[in-house]
Amino acid sequence: MVCLGNICRSPLAEGIMQHLAEKNGLDWQIDSAGTGNWHVGEGPDRRSTRTARNHGVDISRQVCRQFNKSDFNEFDLILVMDKNNLSDVLAMAPDERAAAKVKLLLGNKEVPDPYYDDSQFEPVFKLVEQGCKDIIKPHLILPGREDF
Ligand code: 4NP
Questions:
Q1: pLDDT tens digits for 91-102?
Q2: For a Cys-Cys bond, which of 67, 102, 116, 127 suits 33, CB 3.0-4.6 Å?
Q3: pLDDT for the residue numbered 141
């Protein structure tokens, strides 16, 4: 899960996907990172932490890190929040196989950056949650019986 700062959107995406995977018995390795390095080593933005907690998702122990080239080897799927993230991550892809792993979480829509608008954290949570559900659905053992 990749966004710009790795403190607002992608921590939510990591936490929500982890939560959904655990609830549905999927042993997935899920992580998040930012294309930028301003917040490396920090925890998530408090507004994201609070919004996630309101929905029963704990992201408080996550630590911000920067996306790096080795992530293309480490992960099968690299989900980005907006089109800037998409071009930044694609620019780092060493080959076509790596580039093919990179997708927008919402398919063709973007998850807007809520950093400068407190009122956007709740709608961003909902968007990210729907994106995560759409990604995980085809991987469930009993489609249509998902525990969401
Ligand atoms: P995020 O939001 O990409 O969803 O984590 C941002 C957080 C911080 C900054 C930009 C976006 N920043 O410029 O510090």
A1: 999 999 999 999
A2: 67
A3: 78
Of the chain, the end-to-end C-alpha distance in Å amounts to 20
Which of 8, 9, 71, 132 is labelled catalytic?
Answer: 9
The pTM of the whole model exceeds 0.90: yes
Find all residues with CB under 8 Å of 109, minimum gap 6, and list them.
127
Query: Would residue 144 count as lying in a domain?
Result: no
Amino acid residing at 137: K
- Tell how far the Cα of 142 is from the centroid of ligand 1, in angstroms: 37
Domain that residue 84 falls in: 2-139
Question: What CATH number is associated with residue 111?
Answer: 3.40.50.2300
Annotated catalytic residue: which of 3, 8, 64, 132?
Answer: 3
